[in-house]
Amino acid sequence: MAKWAIAIHGGAGVDPNLPEQRQEEAKRLLSRCLQIGVDALKARQSAVDVVELVVRELESDPMFNSGRGSALTAKGTVEMEASIMDGRQRRCGAVSGLTTVKNPVSLARLVMDRSPHSYLAFAGAEEFAREQGVETVDNSYFITEENIGMLKLAKEANTILFDYRIPLTGADTCSASVGSLVPDTSLQMNGLPISIYSPETVGCVVVDSTGNCAAATSTGGLMNKKSGRIGDSPLIGSGTYACDLCAISCTGEGEAIIRSTLARDVAAVMEYKGLNLQEAVDFVVKERLDEGQAGLIAVSRNGEVACKFNSNGMFRGCATEDGYMEVGIWE
Amino acid sequence: MGWAIALHGGAGDIPVDLPTDKRAPREATLRRCLDLGVAALKAGRSPLDVVELVARELENCPYFNAGRGSVLTTNGTVEMEASIMDGTSKGCGCVSGLTTVVNPISLARVVMEKTPHIYLAFDGAEAFAREQGLETRDQSYFITEQNIERLKQAKEANRVQIDYTQPQPIKEQAIPRSEGDSQIGTVGCVAVDRNGNLASATSTGGLVNKMVGRIGDTPVIGSGTYANTICAVSATGKGESIIRNTIARDVAALMEYKGLSLKDAANQVIANAPKGTVGLVAVTDKGDVAMPFNTTGMFRACAVEDGHSEIAIW
């Protein structure tokens, strides 16, 4: 019998000034979701079932950027995406552009299990959701007061930045609320000052007691994104990957993750260079991200777990059958 | 070393007795595209420019499954997708769900160069195309008689299947197999210039009778398209297979991480995918070319600076 292991994340790139209370709330949520996964693993549920149920839990809570609590598009709406991959036979399912589906990761699973395709998006995905009878709600369900406020700040920040790569300094800001970001305005993720940036994505990777690996990732995407923008989360090989060796879920600057096919590369260096999980994760984050900021969680079929990020923090939690269990935010 | 270019018009179950009236125009297009690409490389155009212009030409040709001539969704509409990648910067641009944009590959390039995003789809992508002033035409421009016929045949073939859309337990359902059309499926081009800069572009109408909203491998970086400083790859075939096998990235990964030659890497990737599902074209920074496939055939062409060139189907 193989040893099970699980890792979860709530996004990479965290505001260093995040209030203590918020940090505690986040850690409590991570602990709760981690425990749900651990209980399911102890009950011998399959890896793909466990990643789905854990990500559903993360989507349902408004704290992280997925499902309820998703970041808003430039239009002030929510467009969610997700993907899931079962390491056995590398079956996969992905969805993008969801506006009413309560649990995007579950629709991704249905795409994998109940359609002849791997990836459905926008109106077609919503139509499939109705045909499948999944729970749908009004778009407003996903929108939180906090994110409405964040969108406003993001728009203000973007009107100041002509080129999103130019760092915002205190002297250039013209509104009091943006000006209050002065202490860390040099810290940016995806073109937004870190205090406005909503760490994208939640995810879960699992190896179950039979040694099978699975991964799932879900997100509302980039705050103030253009409607129709797709990030790395639903892209197999970028945000999510699972094979017979390992499973990976990534988070952070989508562009960097896609260009470096981050999730696939972890598995590829294990497969083709013979690196072990930690070595593979270290190599990929160090050598493959160029100037991008991102993080990932990974498990191997041997019951190992690894987390790594080059961003400022990553909400995460890991547990193994040996009894190890930990949640964290910072390095 | 020197420049090299390879392009494809789709891999699939192309019958060896393909009638002349279907074969000739496709071969002529491959030849024309090859000549255009070669001329551009000789004139010193960047590989990114070259792959874009060749893909545009293939999109404009109604005999291949991209742009005009795209296969139809189950609703009888066209939903096109494409991606482009610059090996030097690893910049990429992807689009899906286009219904009126005449050249999807060009929109993908604009997404790469003019937005902080990589991938735009459906209404958002269409709106962006208009903002950017790209050429758009009514849906009817893209739809051909042959594709209306193909859709009809595909629907007839599926008619005996249980309707998979009923929410039933999986073991009672017959999930229709995703059969790619035999004659056409995606276009693509890879190129390297004399300085070893690489680029890749892929464009498609997708799978005949596909569900509305279905996205295949073509716009997924690492699956249908990939380019870095070692090689550039464009894949074609059954999208779902290409995604699971991360075909384009794997060719480069085998070269990079296992030290395989292009030929060995490309052959291994093709051999590891189920027979009858994939093909690819690839070039390296050294000017090597590979065009393997495990289907009956693949419309393809290539040329290298030393003079060798080839146009083939089987």
UniProtKB/TrEMBL annotation, chain A:
CDD domains: Asparaginase_2
Top-rank taxon, per record: Eukaryota
Top enzyme category: hydrolase
Catalytic residues, chain numbering: T201 (nucleophile)
Listed GO MF terms: asparaginase activity; beta-aspartyl-peptidase activity
Binding site residues for substrate: R229, I230, G231, D232, T251, G252, E253, G254
InterPro entries found in the cross-reference section: Ntn_hydrolases_N (IPR029055), Peptidase_T2 (IPR000246)
GO BP, one annotated term: proteolysis
Keywords on record: Autocatalytic cleavage, Hydrolase, Protease
Site (Cleavage): E200, T201
EC number: 3.4.19.5
Catalytic activity field: Cleavage of a beta-linked Asp residue from the N-terminus of a polypeptide
PANTHER family cross-referenced by the UniProt entry: ISOASPARTYL PEPTIDASE_L-ASPARAGINASE 2-RELATED, L-ASPARAGINASE
Assembly with partners or alone: Heterotetramer of two alpha and two beta chains arranged as a dimer of alpha/beta heterodimers.
Protein name: beta-aspartyl-peptidase
Organism expressing this protein natively: Rhynchospora pubera
UniProtKB/TrEMBL annotation, chain B:
A Pfam family matched in the record: Asparaginase_2
Keyword Hydrolase attached: yes
Site description Cleavage, residues in chain: G185, T186
Binding partners and assembly: Heterotetramer of two alpha and two beta chains arranged as a dimer of alpha/beta heterodimers.
Any GO MF annotation of the entry: asparaginase activity
Origin organism lineage: Eukaryota, Viridiplantae, Streptophyta, Embryophyta, Tracheophyta
Protein name from the UniProt record: beta-aspartyl-peptidase
SUPFAM superfamilies per UniProt: N-terminal nucleophile aminohydrolases (Ntn hydrolases)
Keyword Iron: no
BP GO terms, sorted: proteolysis
Residues that, per the record, bind substrate: R214, I215, G216, D217, T236, G237, K238, G239
Enzyme class: hydrolase
Active site: T186
Keyword annotations: Autocatalytic cleavage, Hydrolase, Protease
EC assignment: 3.4.19.5
Origin species: Rhynchospora pubera
Catalysed reactions listed for this entry: Cleavage of a beta-linked Asp residue from the N-terminus of a polypeptide
